[in-house]
What we know:
The protein contains two helices and 14 strands; from the N terminus they run ααββββββββββββββ. The protein is of the alpha+beta class. The longest helix is centred in the first third of the chain and has 22 residues, at 21-42. The protein is elongated, with a radius of gyration of 22 Å.
Amino acid sequence: MSVYYKKSRLILSKVKKPYFQKLALSLCSIFFLLSIEANAIQNPTLPSIELLTNPPKNDQSDISLELIADFSPNLIKKGETTTLTILGRVGKRYHIYSVFPQGEFAPKPTEVFLENQWLSKINSTTESETTNIHDQAFDLSLKIHQNDFWISNEYVLSNVTHPGKNVIDGYLTYQICDNRICSLPTKRYFKATIEIQ
């Protein structure tokens, strides 16, 4: 059992007053993260990843991810198909990962989700050309997207729809890294308009 884990249990057992509970929980969180890192050092088969959970405010633009989503064709009838293409731009020095799985210890693939029940995905996701790098954060050879990229899904329109213009909400799940540190898995939302006849 990790010494950090023991320390966190000791703190919780001694805190009785509500006033100090928040401080105790913060300290336990720190000890928990240290415990994970210590375990990773003791077991080299586990990748050790530094998580950038609170990036500096003056660095937000560098790790940003910009998205534009568009349906083509964007005027369709019930039963017809349309393709959603997401154009993305990753901030300078950073990258996100391919839409395809890359192994047990690799990051989760980038994925597209629609918050809509009328459109059903009918084909596998496609993406722009990726770059192969040795990612130091995971100590693996991985396929990534840098700078500008695109991701595309094909959907069929069901019979239960609302005619006229509809704004479709969706989001991209991804991790953004700089080959040394990574964000936690996160979401970036987008909107796309489709007109149904």
